[in-house]
Amino acid sequence: MELVEAMRTTGTCRYFTDEPVPDEVFYKAFDAARFGPQGGNRQPVRWIVVRDQAKKQRLAELYLPYWDEYFNAIAAGGVDVGALPETVTSSDHFARHFAEHPAIVVVCGEISGLHVTDAGLDRTSVVGGGSIYPTMQNFCLALRDQGVGSAVTTLLCHEEPKVRELLHIPDGFLTAAHVAVGYPAKGFPSKLTRSPVEEIVGLDDFATPMFR
Questions:
Q1: Distance in angstroms (rounded) separating the CA atoms of residues 43 and 135
Q2: Which of these, 128, 129, 191, 192, could form a disulfide with 114 (CB 3.0-4.6 Å)?
Q3: Cα(206)–Cα(165) distance, integer angstroms
């Protein structure tokens, strides 16, 4: 499909059919994803496609307590998600059916291939993800091109040691995200809600809008 259309309609899919995603669909998506930009062409991203029901169930057991904590904080007003109630409801459905999603793709990164230039700053470090997440987004776009939905979550990264043990992830690799993959039960969005360009782009400094 046309690239910009794919970009504007690759939303978070939280409802999937039971139809399995064929190997050839995954292959095409991984084949396209690997061309994502990364520092020094180190290519640090590795993938694990989890289809085994027992392993998906274990991932769900690890995932749900973190979702429950977050969901309860939203309900109590302690977390402002800036999301519509429908989004919160669909996220709750996604979490409680985590083991039923056709596949969970674990996005791994080879630590030695990440150049973390912000590690010494007095804030949360994010730069290492710059060599991982563009490739992951390519993967989601390549799935969308084939009519397959995806949902990225990072909650399971809280339980990285247990996920590493479950999936035999070797030393030297981290988990950057988990992507639920399947055919969408409710189709793809025709329009995603995002802030307008006028509110997110500055010219020459943070506060001066480039577009008015």
A1: 9
A2: 128
A3: 44
pTM over 0.90: yes
Query: Residue 66 phi/psi, 5° resolution?
Result: -70, -35
Cα separation, 107 vs 180, whole angstroms: 11
* Cβ atoms of 66 and 60 closer than 8 Å: no
Q: What is the C-alpha to C-alpha distance for residues 90 and 106, in angstroms, rounded to an integer?
A: 22
| 191 pLDDT higher than 90 | no
Any idea how long the chain is?
A: 212
Q: Cα(133)–Cα(69) distance, rounded to whole angstroms?
A: 26
User: If phi over 0 gives left and psi between -120 and 50 gives alpha, with beta otherwise, what is residue 139?
Assistant: alpha
What stretch of H or E contains 151?
A: strand 149-153
Question: What does the H/E/C string look like for 83-112?
Answer: CCHHHHHHHHHHHHCHHHCCEEEEEEEEHH
Average pLDDT for the chain: 95
Please list, in sequence order, all residues whose beta carbon lies within 8 angstroms of the beta carbon of residue 164, skipping any fewer than 6 positions away. Answer: 173, 175
